[in-house]
Each structure stands twice: as C-alpha cells, then as structure tokens.
Write the structure tokens for this entry.
Amino acid sequence: MSIADIAIRVNLLIITLLSFVPQYLRIITKRDTAGISLYYILLNLISATHQFSLNLHLISENAQIAETIVQTPPSLGDWLNLAQSTVLWISQLGLFLSLILTSPPRPTQKCSVVTIYITVLLLSLSPVITESTLHAPNQEPGEYSRWFSAIYSGIAFMFVNPVITLLALVASVPQVRELRSRAEIGALSIPGLAVQAVVFILVGLYWPFRMGIRPQYWRLEPGRVWVYWYQRVGWAAVDNLVFAIVQAVVLWTALRQRGTGFWRGQLDNERTPILLRK
C-alpha cells in the first residue's frame, strides 16, 4: 500500500466528516429541524449502517474472505475502509438523533422511524457480532463459523445490497416532498448539500481502488462480471455515488424552492405600492 493511497484515504475520511459540519451548524443556529424529512434522514442512515456492518464483517471474518477484498491480517487500508464507513455511520446517526431530539415534535413520525431504525440496526449488527463470537480472535475459524459467515455473506451481498441501494436512491423523494410543501427551506443546509454532492462523488469513485475482485472474474461475460463486482465490492462505491446524487437532487430542489420564494417575495413587494396608491 503506497503513501499516496494512504494519504488519499485519510483525506477522504477527513472531508467526509467535515461535509456534515454545515448541516450541524444550521441545526444549531436555527435550534430546530423544520424542513428536514425524518424519512430522508432515516433512509440515508440505513444505507450508512449497512455499509458499516458489511465493512465490519469483512474485517472480523477476513480469514474466510479473498485477500483481494480484505487482507489477513487486515492491512492499514482495510482499517481505513472501516474508519470511512464508521465516520459516515456516526455522522448520519448524529443527524438522525438531532431530528428526534429537537422540534418540531412530530411524535407519531418519530416513534415510527425510531422503531424502524432499531429493527434495522439489530438485523444489521447482530449477525456480525454473532459471527465474531463463534471463534477466538487468534484461532482458525471452525466449520460452524465458516458456514455462518458464508450464509450471512450470501444473504447480505446477493439480496440485501440491492434493497439498500434502492432505499438510498429513493431517499430524495420524502425530502423533495417536504421542500415542496413549505414556503422556505427551513433547517436544511444548502452549502452542506453542495459540499456532500461533491465529496461523495469523490468517495464513491475511489472505492473501487480500495477493494477489488480476483482478476479471473473480469474474464466473465460483461453482465455477469458487473453483477459479481457489485455484489462483492461494488456496493460501497454505488451507495456512496447514490448518496451524492440524492444530495444533488435535494440541492437542486432547495435552490429552486428558495428562488421561487425569493421571486414571489419580490413580486409582492412590487405590488404593495400599487395597492397602497389605490
């Protein structure tokens, strides 16, 4: 692993963390989260949780996974990959808790999203925690541990990944609806959206250089190889790029909303003197 590769991963880690700062500052300044959809944040958090749990799985069961994905023992790059997904998860979790703990109340929605997320969290992390307890850290995994890891990997990579990507893709829908139902953007941070749209394009584009599949798999038919790539390692790149697209869509909607409100206000101001003259 080269120094340049380490430097890129560390810098991506730092800018990922910093990209959430504008939104946090906006919430602190306004002292509420009006204008931010709970389901938009929930879907983003579910995607981040899944990325964290899969990276944790790759680290904890690295002896059973091809060395092109995670080395045995895990390298510095592998730990930086886990750190990247951890920072994303914690940052999204912080936003989620901010919406739950601040106004507006929205008790019914808050109860629903908390219940949904606790369920998702248990389903995501319980298998990873379970498989890590099936053998000692310095011992060769037993047959039962290998079977458990293989079943979990198959379910997560083949079936859960597409669902999570689809959920991440539709995350913009509740937020766009929230914006269109309001006269102004509320606590949503436009600089934060712009920064994250750029940052997560970079993060997503670099993920293929972090984890790869064995060279012989690239000799498969084009359709099969891309499906295999997505299932094994490409999910991280795709989900980060999807998040960048979602933030860009929300940014575009917010700018249009703010522009519409601005021009409506200008028209109202221009009409006021005419009305007063009458």
About this structure: The chain is about 75% helix and 0% strand. Residues 261-278 have pLDDT under 50 and may be disordered. The CA atoms of residues 53 and 125 lie 6 Å apart. The two ends are 77 Å apart (CA to CA).
